[in-house]
Amino acid sequence: MSRKLRVAIVVQRYGAEITGGSEALARAVAERLTDDHEVTVLTSCALDYVSWKNELPEGLQRENGVDVLRFPTEVEREQESFNRASEALYARARSEVEELDWLRQQGPDVPRLVQRLEADRDRYDAVLFFTYLYFPTYWGLRAAPERSILVPTAHDEPPLGFSIYRLVFEAPRAFVFCSSPERELVRRRFEIGSRPAEVAGIGVDVPASPDVEGFRIRHDVSGPYALYAGRIDAGKGCDEMLGFFGHYRANVRGGAQLLLIGRLAMPEPRVPGVRYLGYLSEAEKFAAMAGASAVVCPSPYESLSIVLLEAMAYGTAVLATERSAVLEDHCRRSNGGLFYRDAGEFAEALDLLVTRGELARALGENGRRYVAEGFRWELVMDKYRRTIAAVSR
């Protein structure tokens, strides 16, 4: 019998406690590869992406069939000073030295991870890097490019224009993208040629029978509501969403509430009709999604949007910003939601979804079918395995 292929996965954070974005995708892929691959994750000791504080134990742990090697961050990030430095750099031309210093400040600063990867690179048949943006990917691709696969999770944000990232997109032997608009964005910005470039997306698994009535009782929710689920942050479009929702409430008599669930990364909103419920369990989140008139997706910076797909899986219509090509693409291809460009369109679309039940149900059913047909783990993992085989020795 041939041996299992050995795969390394490099990602900035890793663990069951980390539920968002590229980290959740990396963990889901790692655990599903263990059936027929030997998988080692190289990551930081951080739980918090803001400070990169070392909170998890250094060294090797075995987690759900995956060997996880954690390395301490050398320097924690001071978010306010980093944000000021970033805004200044975004606004002008930059030298390579300045960009590399910004990369180190952004973190997680884990040079020992890179050194270990370079020392062990001949042990691995493939190395998957999740997220183009961070220190481990930039320096890790320089240390071990030979059998590398980049999962960029890229969107149109200022750092994508930094010159240092040309190397990140030139080095990999193959790519796995989350969506077609993400792949097209990368092709417009970088020369990837004929290298393998799969669009794999993600598998969507949601509980079959969420406790919607129990959610309403536990949180004293009556009447129709729209839902935002995720990090509550101006960078995620939440400021704009709250302003647009204020316009909706001012112009629609008896309008729906807007419920916010997730971690606060901005002052708690004080807008009429808006309620912040805190950071809830996954079960509560799914119940909230299933009972909503609409799930609002306001972030202009998305490479996939798991929240949008989870909402569609429950047959809940989505209301998404037109500023994200990925979100608009989901809405158009699925016919499972509406999208908006300004406060007037937001208010009109939300009013339709709240008051026109037959429209919301039809959109929701379209979305449910879209997710069921295109976002199954067996399809996703076939593409990852095919790409690993293409770059392995």
3D architecture notes:
The chain has 15 helices and 14 strands. With 393 residues, it is α/β, with parallel strands linked by helices. It folds into two domains: 215 residues, 3-Layer(aba) Sandwich (Rossmann fold); 163 residues, Rossmann fold (3-Layer(aba) Sandwich), CATH 3.40.50. Strands 3-4-2-1-5-6-7-8 form an eight-stranded mixed β-sheet, with helices on both faces. Helix 6 links the parallel strand 6 and strand 7. It is globular, with a radius of gyration of 21 Å. The two termini are 17 Å apart. The mean pLDDT is 94.
Give the arrangement of secondary structure elements.
Blueprint: E1 5-10, H1 21-33, E2 37-44, E3 59-63, E4 66-71, H2 79-90, H3 96-106, H4 111-120, E5 126-130, H5 135-143, E6 148-151, H6 165-170, E7 174-177, H7 180-189, E8 197-199, H8 212-218, E9 225-229, H9 238-251, E10 257-261, E11 274-278, H10 282-291, E12 294-297, H11 306-313, E13 318-321, H12 325-334, E14 337-340, H13 343-355, H14 357-374, H15 377-391
Parallel strand pairs: 1-2, 1-5, 2-4, 5-6, 6-7, 7-8, 9-10, 9-12, 10-11, 12-13, 13-14
Antiparallel strand pairs: 3-4
Helix pairs in contact: 2-3, 4-5, 8-10, 9-13, 11-14
